[in-house]
Amino acid sequence: MTKYSSAEQILRPGEVGLFIFTDGTNLTINPDGTGETGNWVVDLRRRVVCVIIYKRDTANPSHNDLFIAQSGDFDGPRDDRYLINLRDIKHLGNTDVNWSEFASTGAMPIRYIARQ
After folding, report:
1. For residue 43, what is the DSSP state?
2. Do the bridges between strand 110-114 and strand 16-22 make them parallel or antiparallel, or are there none, so unpaired?
3. Where are the beta strands (DSSP E) in 4-109?
4. What's the pTM value of the predicted model, to 2 decimals?
């Protein structure tokens, strides 16, 4: 299993990804690779190549799962938040790095990251 230490390692040069931090609440991953995640404040004008989900393991903080998916449509808005429908979800690997360090961010649970 691949272990990542930063969000940029997942992207190729020139790519932009939408990274989401969750404890799994409102995250659904179906056996057919479809699913959905939460209600998030997103910018529908931003174009991304993929959605990366950082799922915190509350029982073992040194083993946080990473999933990669293609973004489907967005349901909403509901109070300026959108439910993100996903397709082609795959388990990418894991990280023992906390969210703030992994995504080079503060407490924000959603982040657009571009690799130069």
Report:
1. -
2. antiparallel
3. 16-22, 27-29, 35-40, 50-55, 64-78, 81-95
4. 0.94
pLDDT by position in tens, the chain (length 116)? 799 999 999 999 999 999 999 999 999 999 999 999 989 999 999 999 999 999 998 888 789 999 999 998 899 999 999 999 999 999 999 999 999 999 999 989 999 999 98
Residue extents of the structural domains in the chain: 7-114
Amino acid at 2: T
Q: Residue holding tokens 């932009």?
A: 16
Closest residue by Cα to residue 67 from 49, 52, 83, 86: 52
- C-beta neighbour count of 100 within 10 angstroms: 12
Q: What angle do CA 47, 26, 23 make, to 5 degrees?
A: 90
pLDDT in tens, 95-113: 999 999 999 999 899 999 9
Any idea which residue has 């293609």 for tokens? Answer: 70
Closest CA to 70 of 35, 40, 94, 46: 35
